């Protein structure tokens, strides 16, 4: 019987990268126990089942309910609770993303077990798992041990490696999870889901991020950053300073209260490097900072620092990259 239940995140019928990161966490937390996966929404093709199995899932449950088409916290909570019961899992691992984290908290409350939210890592000592959570914008780390009942954990995307493919996966197909007897409670009514216009490349999963801060001076100032991001095949992000000033949408915000990104290359343009911003990007592999102020704190975390005007430097970079 699986010991761990992973709540899959998907987009357009494909698992999001974070789903594979959750499988890594499941294997680390329970090296000898099986892993079940809950899929919410339309059952995907056999290729997805095979992919999940090859990365460690031994049982696949799918809640293909009409109530899960648009976000509905009650339906999500029911799906997670029924999957816990069906799988018999003692540990539930989900992504710390909206809106899933809302439903995980509700399910955890229902089972009365321990709950560790927003974890970035785990450690195993003497057969016990400690879930590590950053506090105070990453200045401190809390290690939380969940000792009773069914435990629930949410993990920030982009912190653990994605589970790799192992060649010896047994064939696994999705099993349908029936809705609750009597139907999903109807205390919450979702009237409309308005799709937000997003960047071409998903910021959370982009391998290259070009981010702008208050130094871009206005919405128009993001144009050279978009051109650079396009030339590199990356996504555009922003500091909260830029979002607060109305230069861009809050969906682009990176940091303690925004998205956490760990791309291969992060180019910070006109961003001072406040601790709350660093909390969202300091684990990027290579950091390039462009800033007119040689004393800007962002240079302390940068691998390459360019002291100068972003409006001169960024177009030069774009031009050079387009030549290649
Ligand atoms: P500034 O600090 O104003 O820096 C602008 C920089 O641009 C300066 O360094 C300047 O030298 C440079 N510059 C100006 N003109 C140019 C030019 N032409 N070329 C090159 N460089 C130029 N912030 C986040 O980013 N993310 C968060 O999630 C976040 N969460 C927060 C949560 C809390 C509870 C609090 C209190 C704050 C949070 N903040 C967050 C805000 C954070 O403290 C900073 O205020 C914010 O990051 C500053 O944004 P900035 O670097 O764009 O602006």
Q: Can you describe this structure?
A:
The structure is a single chain. This protein is of the alpha/beta class and 324 residues long. The protein is built from nine helices and 17 strands. The protein has helices at 17-29, 46-54, 73-87, 100-111, 223-232, 240-244, 275-281, 298-301, 310-323, and strands spanning 4-7, 10-11, 14-15, 35-40, 57-63, 91-95, 115-119, 121-125, 128-135, 140-144, 151-155, 174-176, 208-212, 235-238, 265-269, 286-291, 304-307. The strands form four sheets. A seven-stranded parallel sheet has the order 7-11-6-1-4-5-12, sandwiched between helices. Helix 3 packs across helix 4. The longest helix has 15 residues, at 73-87. The termini are far apart. The model has no long low-confidence stretch (mean pLDDT 92). Bound molecules: flavin-adenine dinucleotide (FAD). Residues 213-215, 239-242, 253, 255-258, 270-272, 274, 276-277, 280, 290-293, 296, 309-311 line the site of flavin-adenine dinucleotide.
């Amino acid at each position: 019987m699986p010991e761990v239940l992973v709540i899959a995140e998907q987009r357009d019928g494909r698992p999001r990268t974070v789903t594979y990161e959750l499988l890594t966490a499941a294997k680390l937390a329970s090296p000898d126990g099986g892993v079940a996966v809950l899929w919410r929404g339309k059952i995907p093709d056999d290729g997805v089942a095979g992919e999940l199995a090859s990365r460690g899932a031994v049982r696949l449950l799918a809640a293909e309910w009409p109530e899960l088409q648009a976000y509905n916290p009650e339906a999500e909570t029911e799906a997670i609770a029924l999957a816990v019961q069906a799988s018999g899992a003692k540990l539930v691992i989900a992504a710390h993303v909206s809106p899933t984290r809302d439903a995980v908290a509700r399910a955890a409350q229902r089972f009365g077990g321990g709950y560790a939210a927003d974890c970035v890592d785990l450690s195993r000592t003497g057969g016990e798992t400690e879930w590590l959570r950053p506090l105070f914008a990453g200045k401190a780390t809390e290690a939380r041990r969940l000792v009773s009942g069914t435990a629930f954990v949410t993990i920030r995307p982009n912190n653990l490696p994605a589970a790799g493919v192992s060649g010896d996966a047994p064939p696994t197909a999705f099993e349908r999870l029936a809705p609750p007897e009597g139907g999903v409670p109807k205390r919450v009514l979702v009237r409309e889901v308005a799709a937000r216009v997003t960047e071409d490349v998903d910021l959370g999963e982009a391998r290259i991020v070009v981010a702008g801060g208050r130094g871009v001076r206005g919405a128009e100032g993001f144009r050279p950053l978009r051109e650079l991001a396009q030339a590199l095949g990356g996504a555009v992000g922003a500091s909260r300073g830029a979002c607060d000033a109305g230069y861009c949408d809050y969906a682009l915000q990176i940091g303690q209260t925004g998205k956490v990104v760990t791309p291969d290359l992060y180019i910070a343009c006109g961003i001072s490097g406040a601790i709350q911003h660093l909390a969202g990007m300091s684990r990027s592999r290579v950091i390039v900072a462009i800033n007119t102020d040689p004393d800007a704190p962002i240079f302390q975390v940068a691998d390459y620092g360019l002291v100068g005007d972003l409006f001169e430097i960024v177009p030069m970079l774009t031009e050079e990259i387009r030549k290649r």
